Amino acid sequence: MRSLVARAPVTVLVGGDTGMGKTWLARRVLAGSVAATRVVVGCRGLPAEPHVVIRELVACLGGDEERALAGGAYRVCRTVRALLGGAAESVLLVVEDVDQADSDSLQVLRYLATRPPPGVAMLMTFTPGRWMARLGSAAGVVERVDLGPLPVAVVAELAGLAPGPEAEALRELTGGVPLLVEQVLAAGPGEVPAQVLDLVQGRLAGLDERARQTLWAAATVWSAGGVACVPLMARICGPSAETALLEGVAARLLIRREDGTFAFAPPLLGRAAAASVPASRRTLLHAALAQALAAQDGGAPPEQLIYHLRAAGQAAEAARHAERVAEQAVRAGATARAVRLLRDLLGEADLPSRTRAGLAGRLGRLAVTSLGCEETIDLLRTILIDPLLPQGLRGELRLHLGLLLMNQAGDTAGRGELARAAAELHRRPALAARAMSALALPYGGAGPLAEHLEWLAKAERALPQTGDPALLTGVRVNCAGALMQYGEHRAWTAVAALAGDAQTAAERMQLARGYCNLAGPAMALGHPRPAADYLRRAEELARHAGPSYPLARITEVSLYHEWVTGQREGLAEHARRHLADHAGRPAATANAALVLGHLALAKGEWHEAEELLSAPGLDGSIGWYGIEFALGTAGRIRLATTRGRWPAELEEALQVFRAKGVWAWAGELVDAAMEALILHGRTGQARLLLKEFTADVRARDCPYAQAVAVHGQATLAAATDRPEAAELFTRAATALAAVSRPYEQARALENAGRCTLPGGLGQVTAAARLFTALDATWDAARCASLLREYGGAAEPRRGRRGYGKQLSPREREVSRLVALGRTNKEIAEVLFLSPRTVEQHVARVMRKLGTSTRDQVHLKLLE
Length: 863
Fold this sequence. Notes:
By secondary structure, this protein is mainly α. Among the domains are: 2-146, Rossmann fold; 209-279, Arc Repressor Mutant, subunit A; 809-862, Winged helix-like DNA-binding domain superfamily/Winged helix DNA-binding domain (Arc Repressor Mutant, subunit A, Orthogonal Bundle), CATH 1.10.10. The strands form two sheets. The chain has a five-stranded parallel β-sheet with strand order 2-3-4-1-5, with helices on both faces. β3 (91-96), α6 (103-114) and β4 (120-126) form a beta-alpha-beta unit. The radius of gyration is 37 Å and the shape is flat. One of its GO terms (cellular component) is cytoplasm. Residues 800-863 form the HTH luxR-type domain. It comes from Nonomuraea endophytica.
């Protein structure tokens, strides 16, 4: 703009709808101008008199108004042009809102625009309309600049947001109009800015009563997420509805889409129009719309009908519709939609208390298998305050609250709510058994095994033979899962009694949840084949359920299963995607963080591993002390040991399992703890720990823990230089291979080889190959360093391969660590190389990638 006005004589026309920033831009150009004379004339708010804008201009230039306006139109044009040209050597004239000027002034302004005097630059702002069509042009003299809506990136910058869904929603709401963006940001959440309300009310006031009533109806439709189509609007407003809607288009409130429907553009205008509807008229409109939608051929979107019924004050009718639609949604596998419908309706203040409680019970039953529980938890807590709730209904609602708190919210208060629910449900034994069976699961809470066993026995006694199939299935899968987690041999009998499929969606969801909750413990205890089978069954049962908590858990357990069994293809990417999709839900992302943390640890990415392994679901902070807690703590202990530090949390973590009295899923933790104890000269404590661990797992059905016990014996033997260490490590490696634990098998092979060097080079070589296949580059580098020391090699020597301009495997490892910000010294420590060797590798990497500095090496360059 500044470059355009510097080319005087010139006229620059700046067009744009209200709020596009015409005035802002003109003022910025004016402020940066070096013209000797700068004049601003506004065309809004002036009296309706001939030549009133020209009078303003002449006065600003210090001329004689009467002399300038004497004579005919042509003489006036020439006089004003001469006055403007003689004002100074260089002049910048800004005329704002020129389309609002009186017709006589417009004649003069058109003349000036196409014939600007020498040294004069004119900048005229206008709202597009008929005025531009009547304006002539002179090639090379008149320039036009149209201001359009802001792109998402600029809206995000104005709002201080990162580009993403929130910025896109703001852009959609405001249409990217700068003034509207600014007004929305200044207003409170959900508020209609006062200036926007005034704008819309002003445009509505310019319509006749019939058109205004029709646009109020269109805004009411829009408020429920509906579309103003002509048939619906005609049913509400009569046969002239289409004409009225077209008047709304002319008033720059609506647009007509290609499909013939009408919409407020931007949507913020619709929000303001809805807020402008008088309260007395609003209720009548909602009632009329509810009736029209209910009678509509093919039915209406249920959410819209329910919204209008509620807004019309027909809460009981809205509740009946919501229950029916929620039931249909569940049958169709859209549980999340059903939860959303019921949760929204429960926010209705006029619902009778019995209706509210009944809806809350249905919501609770659905919510325990749905994602996103925070609002439901708040609702259930609010309803439970009511002292008039019948005890049985109170117990049911508290059961759902406890399950949501314990399973999804990661709130330790969940177990207390479940215990209270079990007592309140003494006359509803199936529901009581559901609460008891949840309390029987040993992963939840830090209570002792005896307490869980007591709850299990109570659940088995309370469970009736007949009743709601989904509820009974929910109890049975919990009992089977509890036995599996304990490592009890009779777990297999309980699992075999479970159904393979079910008739209803609710029962299938309970079976899916149950088989998923069996797969994790089965894998942790050392039963990989049954674990894979349970996962397959869970996935098949949940396949048509849509997004749900069990489905998220199935993904979590699948990640864990793939990791421990050595399936690395796409694993990290899958885990990162799951972590992003369920951000903020520690109970649904613990395994993803766990897998990524251990993958980073095996690659020597200490900083990344530390952050991931400290996720809330891995440290006991959410009240769960299951597989994730044991593995997360084991990873943090191993990381501290690698760095030569004493793991401060070691004793506290071991105390959790001592207090619980079951060690079946603590194998990784015990293994890491023994390594740390021995490294820090506490061999006696390591021996006592192994004795305690072995005594418990010996009698349980947990082959992985038993293999860890053998590895522990080998570790103690090696620490005291006893000759049987190598044989014990070899036995452990065989046992670990039998339960599909390739990483742990590789560690056992490496340790076995170290005990008999140089005779053990074959086992170290086998370990190095396993580590390489598992992408455990830090472990592989440690083995390679040992092999170099003793003259061995991880791979057969076939002659040195030339990589040309491509990165060699070693260079790729170095470049990855450079991209992560590691120094040469840190890279040398991770890859067991000398700093000088690393320096040479880094130089070759930068040369091959075409970079001149280390900070130009990015992970994307390596893909």
